[in-house]
What we know:
69% of the residues lie in helices and 2% in strands. By secondary structure, the chain is mainly α. This is intramembrane prenyl-peptidase Rce1.
Amino acid sequence: MPLLTPLQSAACSSLLTLSYVGGLYISASTRVGSLVPASSADVGADDTPASAAADAAPRRRGKNDEDVVYARLRTVGIVSVAGVGATIAVLWQAGAARESRPFFRLLSLLSALGMPLPTPSLLTSSAPFEPSLSSYLLSGLRSIGYALGLTATLYTGPLLVSGLDEELPGQKEFEYKRDVRGKWDNVWGLRNYVVGPLTEEVIFRGCILALTAAAGAKGGVMIFATPLYFAIAHVHHAYETYLDSGKTREGLVRGVTHASIQFAYTCIFGWYANFLHLRTGNLLAPLTAHVFCNIMGLPNPAGASKRHMQRKGAIYAAHLVGIVGFAWGIAAL
């Protein structure tokens, strides 16, 4: 018997989505579009008075401003922790876990959210935990391996292109300082590859899928319907693009176009991430796929073919092989 009604589940999921996105606009430190004075550091010593005045003109705060990124990372972190707590409270009240002791009930609910932890036990051969720490770690590594293998297969084409561009580790154009530290060792890397994927997977996979399951939803609904929350959460980028443009018509068109593409992409990725989460029962799987996709970006076989005209056939074939291999891997998992 379902523990929640579909309406209750949808209401809780919608509230989580609104909290995640709305948190980015509550504080002035996280909002974009407002005019701020240019930093004095932006004006060079050799600038003429006219150019200095132009350089010092107010500009609009953008989502990539360092202070905005820091503030938003703090906000989504707080919202995600609160979201996990609220989801556990709802499921606890609904009777989703039947363990008599609160601590073990909490562990059971965390597992339902895709965050399984070893259960302390003094009554098993693997004391003090069940499963044993080695089995627990192996299970996590297996989830990561599934996701990494499947996602890398899908990106067979882009990986070939990176090889042709000699940008893979060990090749001539690869530079550790630029391609690794330059991407990861800053606030933007923290957002794109750590906090962003982690908080999104916690809310849109862990919490929302657990709430949907508590309403008795079937696998198809959980995989294909719930990514709408994830996709809708990205629509606000159209508004930010509109603000960045100074509220121009061109900016509005560009924002809507970009948001439409992102909506479709996040829906498709959401299907895949949900599949990984439900098959492995571990958030590490969709998190791994999320980070990998953020690193690789969207495939562009047409652009790659222009750079490597003699390898055009191989490039398109590799992309096709990747899609076929990915589909086979999904069916086999």
